[in-house]
Amino acid sequence: MKNIIIANGSPRKNWNTYKMCESFAAGVKEAGGEAEIINLYDIDFKGCRSCFACKLKEGKNFGRCAYPDGLPPVLDKISNAYGLVVASPIYCSDVTGVTRCFIERLTFPFFEYKNGYPSIAPKKLKTAMIYTMNVTEELSNQMYPDMFDKTEFMITTVFEKPVRIFAYDTYQFSDYDKFVVEVFDKNKKLKQKEEQFPKDLQNACEAGKNMVESI
Asked: What's the domain range around 24?
């Protein structure tokens, strides 16, 4: 079975990022694959501790992150998968802190300190990135001209270059009137949610199908 792991880096379950994950998973299943969504905020872990156990010559954990917290079982599961999706909202002009920590822990053990930094990952996984954000596509291009490339650099180094799936100008609150949100027009946001977000979900679904079919 072509199994795909979807790492959800959003703390908000059942909101935009999670719904995009669900749609990607639905596409995977439609194409005959198997998908599992893992909520990173449910796991007790931090970023890389620079213990270098993964680089130790003849070490029992060479090429594997084995820091004793909640993440190694997830990393092992990814190592045996056929594809990986990392999903995150954009917070303060970057992916969430948990997503960043996850990418560190996932990728650092899988390249060697040799010329060219060769990958020693068990598989060249098919990968995708899902990004959700409350700014428009035009503003995203102005504000984050190279952020996505930087985020994906290590994933591309050890696996394959990710396919990108975006949801822009997302609807943030169930009731905009309860919050101080002067810079956004709630009616425009609602229109975007009703008219564009279903298309974004469909794009995620199609990406899920495509990943399975490309394996």
From this structure: 3-214
pLDDT at res. 168: 97
Q: How many CB atoms lie within 10 A of CB 190?
A: 12
C-alpha 103/C-alpha 158 separation (Å) is 11
Tell how far CA 21 is from the center of its chain. Answer: 9
CATH number, residue 23: 3.40.50.360
Residue 202, SS3 per DSSP? helix
In this prediction, residue 201 carries a pLDDT of 98
For 134-152, give one letter per residue: b (16+ CB within 10 A) or e. bbeeeebeeebeeebeebb
Mean model confidence pLDDT for the chain: 95
pLDDT tens for residues 35-53?
Answer: 999 999 999 999 999 999 9
Judge whether residue 1 has pLDDT over 90: no
Whole-angstrom distance, CA of residue 96 vs CA of residue 11: 9
Number of domains in the chain: 1
